[in-house]
Amino acid sequence: MVFRLVLGCGTVGRHVVEQLSERDGDGRLLVITDDESVVEALRDESVPARRGDPTDAVTTNQQPDVIFVASDRTDVNRAALEAARRRFPAASIVAYLGGNPTRADRSAFEDRADHVVDAADAIVDEVLDETASPSAETAIELRRQLETIDGRLAVVTHDNPDPDAIASAVALVDVATSVGLEADACYFGDISHQENRAMVNLLDLDLRNLRPEDSLSAYAAFALVDHSRPGVNDQLPEELDVDIVIDHHPPRGPVSASFVDLREHAGATSTVMTEYVDRFSLPFDPATATALLYGIRIDTNDFTREVSPADFRAASILWPHVETSLLEQIEQPTIEGETLETIARAIKNRVQRDSVAVASVGRITNRDALPQAADQLLAMEGVGTTLVFGFRDEMVFLSARSRANDVDLGETLRDAFERIGSAGGHADMAGAQLEIGILGGVDDEDEVDSIVSVVEEVIANRFFEAIDTRPGASVGAYTRTSELLFTRGGEYERGGPP
């Protein structure tokens, strides 16, 4: 429950208090003013109010989450602001400038308040946005959660993280550090896409690469960014107790954590983290700001895919702090020969039915080449939806893209493959990974090639059938084959699929 303290209650403050008391039935509110008539009027309206000096820092011993400095007089508000900041350093303070501020007053307000409201602004709406909006409350709740952690925090991305996940993890580490908490940005897998590696290297981002065999005992708490469930697209134990989840993807299953912020309307988790850094009134580190902006641009395809007003607001906040020269270098890395070969194999091996193209690229060492190949197929004339997949060790990785209005790729991949692996994503871009357990016990290369050929057929047909039977039909013809092939220890008859 959020506790809001109002110091002084002039004309603006009175309007705000009235609307806060109507909007905020679950929160606590206390008004402290030296005007006895205002106190009596508020009490008559069942608004908690107390007569006292708003400039006296010890007027209340309760710890407020949000403070609104709301007298009509600039000098009173400045004194109240200075006292409140000394007394409650962790509180979020919104301060009204009053009617006649000097340049020195403005400077003092900017230095001490988290948000300053000018008389020329749309006052009541702005104050309510800053003191009662969901984003303000979630920032308060996040601070509370971070302050309860006793020990080191692991901020974990999904496997093989993309720019949005990397930037979000780095930003949450910055937020945690601001409240005195030690934290690491962590990931499993590899950062193999050339642009992602360029981002990490050029911005000198501090990341820890975890291995499945690594002990997690050094961490007292865990946060997930850009995904929401341990053991699903990361290599954490499924039963792990998670403290914080911040994501923008729609969850496929229950999300369990002490603090959960799922913003499905946001185009990127980096958008959400930009808001948190801003709400915490932290100075934007240029490297973090550049990473966040790049994360937003990648996940929204330069503000053309599933973009929201929040994404544009975040970009406008970040832009003054971005290292534009480094951003240009990140966006123009050298493309490796292997990536070009993967794209060429996808074009050569594609199977197309109507506007849907599916391609196996065979064995891969760099899974980040798959989404680039899927994008290239999508650029071909007559193609509206693509799926590209490749094999590495005992895993098959899939990447899909679509510009068709009647296709939801996230749901399509889940319908086709979730029973035999993990899958998910957005309507126009999604991915999956499947374990081919049968390959672990096969040494003969010809037999491996035979199994791979069957798997390729299974994957293609499951995807085509999921497209044809949308929304959400299960695939029947290949269910038994899939369950045997994609299960460690499953049996495989030498002559072909069972």
TrEMBL record:
Residues 154-296 form the DDH domain. GO terms for molecular function: nucleic acid binding. GO terms for biological process: potassium ion transport. It holds the Pfam family DHH. Residues 355-460 form the DHHA1 domain. Residues 5-95 form the RCK N-terminal domain. InterPro entries: DDH_dom, DHH_sf, DHHA1_dom, NAD(P)-bd_dom_sf, Oligoribo/pAp-PDE_c-di-AMP_PDE, RCK_N. This is Bifunctional oligoribonuclease/PAP phosphatase NrnA. It comes from Natrarchaeobius chitinivorans.
